[in-house]
């Protein structure tokens, strides 16, 4: 059978025609043909015959042209076209493409690519890389296993002698020339691993020869480290619009240094889940939106409202203040008459004379502990057109 | 080939405004001639600029020689003009630098690009050369889709990518072609190494 199939062109082309009629995809039909002929058929030749039949040709007499060096192939495409093609590949396909050959590995690594969401989790027992809520690579430091999941279904798993080293190598490959909509960090590991992760990122940053193109940077850092600002400074200021930081990191490691970075000048949104001294809060009025935990007095609340009312960029902010100003004190500072002292929330609108529009202020208080007289005040200020 | 016998691209005349009803004639590098509506030409920035610069009247279009496109063959150009005619009047996407470009392949385009790999790459090359933004977008997407779920060995075949061994052989062949003595020197070096010599010199 395989002999006939190999030697008799009409039988061979008849098989391909049957595959076209049965609507078997070209590559699947090709694999079957290789199996039956027990040899590697030239894919381009096979595809040519397949496409002739798909285009309506029905005679078993397709003449395959002689391919020449002048024929177009993927590797002969102009650089910008290559970029356009490669921008359509997802992370997994890029990894497979890298294994085609060493030359192609370089081609893949030198093209820019895009990821909507990249999550980097470094914990005591494992390291995780998550892409676009679809792929998750997990490096388990205890079991020495590396696994790939797609949509929460395991695809591959293999053992690895040094999972952390493998993770750093893969991270270098993935993040090179990558543009990311949202980059998230969760760091809950020891100082040594954390520093190594940051060193790896700095190295990629250097090798790239350009800043990381990230629009939203989110970091939950559960170790006291001073690496956040250096990390922030590796981000391309023209891309970075939003930053969110929380965890056990000390706010002194971020403020006032953040105001001196190039990234600050273009930032629109800042969410700080850490306690920040009030004297560092006022400058946030330069942003479009900010969220912060602080402690304010009556005078500081008045001062803040004054600053927000004169800012040209400010749109909205949320402040959480612990055990400082009470809601009654805030109301008095803003000339708001409350129906009674026990009231827990109020809204107030301040008309802005020169600039037009108004500031809408919503304040709310919540008791944390009656015994210890602990409470928090939520203050939301929004600019109305 | 005479204009009468030229493969005329199907034109939906009702969709073309009366004042725009002018057809340009183009000739591929294998002397195939095409008539293409003015509105369809607008999909190609390169051709649009060219015809604008020429300032042809309706008479010129008929009497002067067809505009030669020397880098593209008839088979590819036919696909290009079929695409342009089908998408005439549609807005041309503006590249605002945003990535990734969300590209959907319409049914017509999918059928048009149901061609062999060689022709598909020629189509991409032509779309790039003629600066037809949306055709380039969909054809690049089509090429990328071909990689879905394939192994490295399969990708080598689909994209005609050489393996490391083939790369190495090609490099060696190129070296030999440049300097026939290079191979002899290399072999001599290998031989000396086999004999246990530490230094070539």
UniProtKB/TrEMBL annotation, chain A:
<dbReference type="InterPro" id="IPR036047">
    <property type="entry name" value="F-box-like_dom_sf"/>
</dbReference>
<dbReference type="GO" id="GO:0045087">
    <property type="term" value="P:innate immune response"/>
</dbReference>
<dbReference type="InterPro" id="IPR002900">
    <property type="entry name" value="DUF38/FTH_CAE_spp"/>
</dbReference>
<dbReference type="InterPro" id="IPR001810">
    <property type="entry name" value="F-box_dom"/>
</dbReference>
<dbReference type="InterPro" id="IPR040161">
    <property type="entry name" value="FB224"/>
</dbReference>
<dbReference type="Pfam" id="PF01827">
    <property type="entry name" value="FTH"/>
</dbReference>
<feature type="domain" description="F-box">
    <location>
        <begin position="71"/>
        <end position="117"/>
    </location>
</feature>
<protein>
    <recommendedName>
        <fullName>F-box domain-containing protein</fullName>
    </recommendedName>
</protein>
<dbReference type="Pfam" id="PF00646">
    <property type="entry name" value="F-box"/>
</dbReference>
From TrEMBL, chain B:
<dbReference type="InterPro" id="IPR036296">
    <property type="entry name" value="SKP1-like_dim_sf"/>
</dbReference>
<protein>
    <recommendedName>
        <fullName>Skp1-related protein</fullName>
    </recommendedName>
</protein>
<dbReference type="InterPro" id="IPR011333">
    <property type="entry name" value="SKP1/BTB/POZ_sf"/>
</dbReference>
<feature type="region of interest" description="Disordered">
    <location>
        <begin position="166"/>
        <end position="201"/>
    </location>
</feature>
<dbReference type="InterPro" id="IPR016073">
    <property type="entry name" value="Skp1_comp_POZ"/>
</dbReference>
<feature type="domain" description="SKP1 component dimerisation">
    <location>
        <begin position="134"/>
        <end position="178"/>
    </location>
</feature>
<comment type="function">
    <text>Probable essential component of SCF (SKP1-CUL1-F-box protein) E3 ubiquitin-protein ligase complexes, which mediate the ubiquitination and subsequent proteasomal degradation of target proteins. Regulates cell proliferation during embryonic and larval development.</text>
</comment>
<dbReference type="GO" id="GO:0016567">
    <property type="term" value="P:protein ubiquitination"/>
</dbReference>
<dbReference type="InterPro" id="IPR001232">
    <property type="entry name" value="SKP1-like"/>
</dbReference>
<feature type="compositionally biased region" description="Basic and acidic residues">
    <location>
        <begin position="169"/>
        <end position="194"/>
    </location>
</feature>
<dbReference type="Pfam" id="PF03931">
    <property type="entry name" value="Skp1_POZ"/>
</dbReference>
<dbReference type="Pfam" id="PF01466">
    <property type="entry name" value="Skp1"/>
</dbReference>
<dbReference type="GO" id="GO:0006511">
    <property type="term" value="P:ubiquitin-dependent protein catabolic process"/>
</dbReference>
<dbReference type="InterPro" id="IPR016072">
    <property type="entry name" value="Skp1_comp_dimer"/>
</dbReference>
<feature type="domain" description="SKP1 component POZ">
    <location>
        <begin position="26"/>
        <end position="88"/>
    </location>
</feature>
<dbReference type="InterPro" id="IPR016897">
    <property type="entry name" value="SKP1"/>
</dbReference>
<keyword id="KW-0833">Ubl conjugation pathway</keyword>
<comment type="similarity">
    <text>Belongs to the SKP1 family.</text>
</comment>
<comment type="pathway">
    <text>Protein modification; protein ubiquitination.</text>
</comment>
